[in-house]
Amino acid sequence: MEKFTKKKIILIGFSIVLVVGFVVGSFYFGYETGRKKPYRIEVQGVSNLEKGKAQDVDFGLFWEVWKRLKEKYVDPAKTGSNQDLVYGAISGLLGSLKDPNTVFFPPSDAKKFGEDISGQFSGIGAEIGMRNDQLVIIAPLKDTPAERAGLRSGDKILKIDETQTGGITVDEAVKLIRGKESTVVALTILRNGWDKSKEIKITRGVIQVPTLDFEMKTDGIAYIHLYNFYEKSVPLFYEAVFKMAKENPRGLILDLRDNPGGYLQAAVDLAGWFLESGEVVVKEEFRSDPEQVFKAQRSGIFKNLPMVILVNQGSASASEILAGALHDNRAIKLIGKKTFGKGTVQELEELPDNSLLKITIAHWRLPGGQLIEKNGIAPDYEVDLSDEDVKNKKDPQLEKAMEILKSEISK
């Protein structure tokens, strides 16, 4: 989930410029000096991780490895340009954190990331991520090649075409899965309950990311299925709740299944329809700065409306914030499966060469005190949705939600 803060973009962008400028601008000086003997310099101001303390850093080893790559690597075409090596070094720096959510995007990849978050791109239409160092499907998007091929939340991706995914990063996996419209990618998938893996071939297409479905079900029950928290989610949610208000509903089912998240502010904004103004939605806990508390700001027009929320292992990030806030503040029942457990805050920083830095800056804590990261949120009523149910177009999770909501309404 990305949060844009102009001041932080400028400051962090400037510190990265110092790193890149130093590496490129002083390459020959560093190369020659490092070639003759290792040298150590004090780096101060590039990072404030040590609160301004000078760090004794040996760059001689860096230049020595650079030299040997340039002189000896068997396939010189793979070493690319000096700028490619700089980008690789930055990616390696972030990779040392072992945080799949802190990522560097060179300019070409930054463009693809921007397409994803704006809601249109070419690929298979699935959100992917890491769980216990395994590449998994977080959520297939509605009406996409991924959904039509039968991919489901929690599926483990063992291979992409002929590439094994052990040790691969999410960014690298995205590059392999994405591609031109009408081309085919083969994913080797292992699902809980399967005896062995299966290869699933998927034809890529232009993906229009779905946002929201609304309908009135029987007995005056409104149903909103929110698929993400991207740019269009807030205005489309407004339209849906105004339609819902005209129907004078007796209750609401909010479906957040397979919703991988999006913008933090969208989750906070939407919570304001269902909470008292001023109630805590979520807290951000930073490394050293004071925590930031996000509170409901809207009128809370539906704060007394009976409701339940559907979640599953594809509900992540902003979905977990919204579901957790309503659960903690109003004891709204959660139905389905345990959520994904994506509980850190990423800030997206645009750098001067049009590359991007997505960096983890904080943890989320729910109003009740729970940290989301890795643990996820357990539902009040755990209900499975099997392959057979999907095949027969049955939805026992939704059926249970209807049952529980009707019980809440009758109280």
Overall SS class: alpha+beta
Roughly how many Å apart are the termini?
Answer: 38 Å
**At the third CATH level, what is the topology name of the largest domain?**
2-enoyl-CoA Hydratase, Chain A, domain 1
CATH class of the largest domain: Alpha Beta
Which key terms come to mind for this protein?
411 residues; alpha+beta; Pdz3 Domain; 2-enoyl-CoA Hydratase, Chain A, domain 1; 3 domains; six-stranded mixed beta sheet; 22 strands
Fold and architecture overview:
The protein is α+β, with helices and mostly antiparallel strands. 34% of the residues lie in helices and 27% in strands. It has three domains: 2-96, no CATH class; 120-208, Pdz3 Domain (Roll); 212-410, 2-enoyl-CoA Hydratase, Chain A, domain 1 (Alpha-Beta Complex). It contains 13 helices and 22 strands. Strands 1, 4, 16, 17, 20 and 21 form a six-stranded mixed β-sheet that branches. A hairpin with a 5-residue loop joins β16 (280-286) and β17 (292-295). The radius of gyration is 24 Å and the shape is globular. The two termini are 38 Å apart.
List the helices and strands and how they pair.
Elements (H helix, E strand, L loop, with lengths): L1 E2 L2 H20 L1 H10 L3 E4 L11 E4 L1 H13 L3 H4 L2 H14 L7 E3 L1 H12 L1 E4 L2 E6 L2 E7 L4 H4 L7 E5 L2 E2 L5 H8 L6 E7 L7 E6 L1 E4 L3 E5 L4 E6 L6 H14 L4 E5 L8 H8 L8 E7 L5 E4 L11 E5 L6 H13 L2 E4 L7 E7 L5 E10 L15 E2 L4 H5 L4 H15 L1
Parallel strand pairs: 1-20, 14-15, 15-18, 18-19, 19-22
Antiparallel strand pairs: 2-3, 4-21, 5-12, 6-7, 8-9, 8-10, 10-11, 13-14, 16-17, 16-21, 20-21
Helix pairs in contact: 2-3, 10-11
